[in-house]
Amino acid sequence: MAPSIPVTRTGKSRLSETDFNRLEFGKYISDHMLLCAWKEGAWQQPEIVPYGPVSFTPAMLALHYGQAVFEGMKAYRMADGRITIFRPDMHAERFNRSLQRMAMPPMDNEFFLTCLRALVEADKEWVPAHEGSALYIRPVVFATEQRLGLKVSDEYLFVILTGPVGPYFNKPIKVKVEETYVRAAEGGTGFAKCAGNYGGAFYPTLRARKEGYDQVLWTDACGHQYIDESGAMNVMFVINNRLITPALTSAILDGVTRHTLLTLAREMGIAVEERKISVKELKDAFERGLITEAFGAGTAAVVATIAAIGIGGTDYYLPEPHAGPVQERLRRQLHDIRRGHAPDIYGWNYIIA
Ligand SMILES: Cc1ncc(COP(=O)(O)O)c(C=O)c1O
Fold first, then answer.
1. Model confidence, pTM
2. Cis peptide leading into 246, omega within 30 of 0?
């Protein structure tokens, strides 16, 4: 437990150098960061210090054997000026599932929340207020023990960084159903938010970009028959007026936004199906005019409208408007809960200041 976290404040804030009207995703990092080491079998006293370089040996195990796990969540400015972190408890649980899968030390949820709260409070001026913007929060743990031999690290560093962000995509996106490469196989690490999952996704994503797509739509490792998810988003389709999303497997990240949107959809009386959805079903739905919407769901992109899906070399376009009524209702309701305009009946807002 961390009853109180010492803060060393920067003498030179970068706030005034930050253009809050033009926030590119991931460009800016706030003034402070939280650092906490794991050694001798325990998390040590965390501290908040000015953001900046930290020195490491190139022999640290994370660089060689990939023990690195992260999370991504957002803090929002509510209409009345208070700050809320959205569902950090669910992120804490997923963080622990990822840590466990990578044989890394677990972290008590309360400890995690205490660290988040302290850092966001220290940099509260960095939480932007305008619509579509938020403070992105990036906790990461990586193996720091210096050793060349293949082994589970005995030392780690837990770091939290934050930064103000704007929209992830500024227009509806085109995605490509990936039928050659694989992101994750059942029994692998797909459900964990570990660094290697993302490193392995870059090359196929770059190829898809060259072909004019924004993102890859990953399919199952066994036969590329079923849709899994997209690069940094889960994926949802409206077919025959039903909201359909791939059921979770060990190859899919259990998205907080996915869970949130499905909960809201059920509450709105929208028929929801969590099940396998095949590439063939998707293609048939386009050919028969049954699919009316497709979108990604993730912390970064929130609800990312999909305009077209490439399947086997053919681009299938969603009907206009691409941001159809189901995603618009969900997006609006989620926004209203976070801003404090709609009641937060599930206790999703973790209000910190
Ligand atoms: C691979 C992948 N799938 C789905 C998601 C969406 O998850 P969440 O809604 O928790 O951000 C993310 C983002 O974290 C991701 O990286």
1. 0.97
2. no
